[in-house]
Amino acid sequence: SAAEKGGYDYFMLKEIAEQPRAVADTLLGRIGADGRLTLDEMRISDQELREVDKIIIVACGTSYHAGLIAKYAIEHWAGLPCEVELASEFRYRDAILSPTTLVIAISQSGETMDALMAVRHAREQKAKLLGICNVNGSTLPRECDGVLYTHAGPEIAVASTKAFLTQLVAVYLIALYIAQVRGTKWGDEVFAMVQLLERMPEKVEKVLETMEPVRELARSLAGERCVLFLGRHVGFPVALEGALKLKELAYMHAEGFAAGELKHGPIALIESGLPVVVIVPPRARAVLHDKIVSNIQEIRARGARTLVIAEEGDTSVEPYADTLIGVPAVPTLLQPLVTTVPLQVFACELATAKGHDVDQPRNLAKSVTVE
Ligand code: AGP
């Protein structure tokens, strides 16, 4: 009913708008007054975490994209090797697991059969199991040694939005917490990141306030057949997520690429008028940033119509952007929290312009309880 949707036409719109709150709720009670993290509820002891020598993340769909971003955070802050695998593929390969391997399964619903089967497979090989889950009392937490809940609140729309942002918060907390208990060389940075995480709800709110140009562009693209998404580093999984949202909701061919791979094939797809969304890393990461700016020039020279998502005030991309969306300046690893939001709005608006019900896309179920 309209009341359940809080005055929005779709649950998805409501859930997109709820993201600042969802992010804040997922941080709540986990950061002490001294800036140190407490994740006791996780039920995996600090001693056990110190013994971990490898992390494997398993998940499906959007949750898998959160896992891909987690890899960057875990390797950097926690200093541990980390692999990310689609849950449906994981159990059919001969992954090398041991009691000092931590397997993290990410699932909004906690009922995704592929994720549950991956967890059972890991348990047989005696790995430690941690779930990241949004639904209290669902199956996944019961099958794991420990769980860290996201506090997104109920997500009704089939396309994941607020659950994804809170999964990112959860993986950042885990990476930073492992860094804290292991005492990695990034001590000061870890402390600074925790402070910054607390400011992320207001940054996400700022993004939401500036979405009109994204909506306008989305409406103008309703007649297109294909949209490409490019990103580097954590911007690459964000590109994959932007493409998945568009497939699910607008039933359009959409693909995400690592910008560095352009020359290895995808650049052949670029033709006059093709819409390409590009996620630009912060200027502080000069090498990454400059490489993507030259990628934008390359595709623009071949006629692409560019939607560029970059840090506010990043004038270097202006000459190559048909539409430029500024997002608040945040460190590279946290940037997906602000760059994903315009892509959600983009897909939602484009699908609505095509007349689709964004809450109930065709052929999809909210949780996939079969393999
Ligand atoms: C997201 O928009 C999708 N509907 C889908 O990819 C989803 O993320 C996937 O099925 C995993 O679901 P889960 O997080 O509940 O395990």
Automatic annotation (TrEMBL):
<keyword id="KW-0808">Transferase</keyword>
<feature type="active site" description="For Fru-6P isomerization activity">
    <location>
        <position position="366"/>
    </location>
</feature>
<comment type="subunit">
    <text>Homodimer.</text>
</comment>
<feature type="domain" description="SIS">
    <location>
        <begin position="45"/>
        <end position="184"/>
    </location>
</feature>
<feature type="domain" description="SIS">
    <location>
        <begin position="217"/>
        <end position="361"/>
    </location>
</feature>
<dbReference type="GO" id="GO:0004360">
    <property type="term" value="F:glutamine-fructose-6-phosphate transaminase (isomerizing) activity"/>
</dbReference>
<protein>
    <recommendedName>
        <fullName>Glutamine--fructose-6-phosphate aminotransferase [isomerizing]</fullName>
        <ecNumber>2.6.1.16</ecNumber>
    </recommendedName>
</protein>
<keyword id="KW-0315">Glutamine amidotransferase</keyword>
<keyword id="KW-0963">Cytoplasm</keyword>
<comment type="function">
    <text>Catalyzes the first step in hexosamine metabolism, converting fructose-6P into glucosamine-6P using glutamine as a nitrogen source.</text>
</comment>
<keyword id="KW-0032">Aminotransferase</keyword>
<keyword id="KW-0677">Repeat</keyword>
